[in-house]
Amino acid sequence: AGCEKEPSSYMWIYILLGNMLRGIGETPITPLGISYLDDFAKEEDVPVYVACLHTIAMLGPMFGFLLGSLCAKLYVDIGFVDLGSITITPQDSRWVGAWWLGFLISGVTSFLAAIPFCFLPKSLKKPEEINNDKTSSGLLENMGTMRKTLPPAKPKPRKYFYTSLKKVLSNRMYFTFLCCSLLQFNSFIGFLTYKPKYMEQQYGQSTSKSNFLIGLTSLPPVSIGIFLGGLIMKKYKMSIIGATKFAFSMSFLAYSFTLLHFFVGCENHMVAGVTVSYE
């Protein structure tokens, strides 16, 4: 009982609030950024621009792993204690790296990267072929004529959120894509979370080296694949159905290769009382 004590640090509250603010700032980038590109870019160039956006988004975690590898080599209390008095090394299980340093570096970098967005114009001129779209302009003219002829409708109760949510979830293609994305991100997050720990335990690597290897070998191929996918879509000018078939074929091929992981493994370490007897 004398060894038990309540935690006196409330630093986790700052981490929680910081991650909440980061999420608020990052959320508009993907939906609004892709819509921005789709509205103001040529139709055949949109896949390449979106591929560049996602490629850079994948390079971020890679540099994050490399930064985490560097910070893990530094002692957690760097700048506050005499490093010469530290007797343990990063290979020791008691070693705690400077995990907090990555938050400061990435925060300053994110702030500097956000400054150019302040100089974007409020509105851009759309390409001529979009402005001269006969189908769209004719549709708008017909809608204007109908509004003039039809009597004013009675105001309906505002249920924008419920109506929008119902329309979105009733779209079969969007709902299928949503389920597919959930499955992909579930596997991807599990891979990034437990693969470094597996490398540490199974192969006796340090946290720093595990993060370095994951960031260097796993994420760059994904970034290259995203960029090549955008180029292929632009070259062959794929429609929605064509892009869906292409995505399904590549996902099925990737799934087939992933099954090979079941045939690769290592024997567990001998742990007394767990995998072997105490004798």
Automatic annotation (TrEMBL):
One of its GO terms (biological process) is sodium-independent organic anion transport. It comes from the Eukaryota. It is a multi-pass membrane protein. It is found in: Cell membrane; Membrane. The keyword Cell cycle does not apply. Its main location: membrane. The keyword Flavoprotein does not apply. GO terms for cellular component: basolateral plasma membrane. One of its GO terms (molecular function) is bile acid transmembrane transporter activity. Pfam families: OATP (PF03137). The chain crosses the membrane at residues 46-67, 97-120, 173-192, 212-233, 245-264. Gene3D superfamilies: MFS general substrate transporter like domains. Keywords: Disulfide bond, Ion transport, Membrane, Transmembrane, Transmembrane helix, Transport. Belongs to the organo anion transporter (TC 2.A.60) family. This is Solute carrier organic anion transporter family member. It comes from Grus americana (Whooping crane).
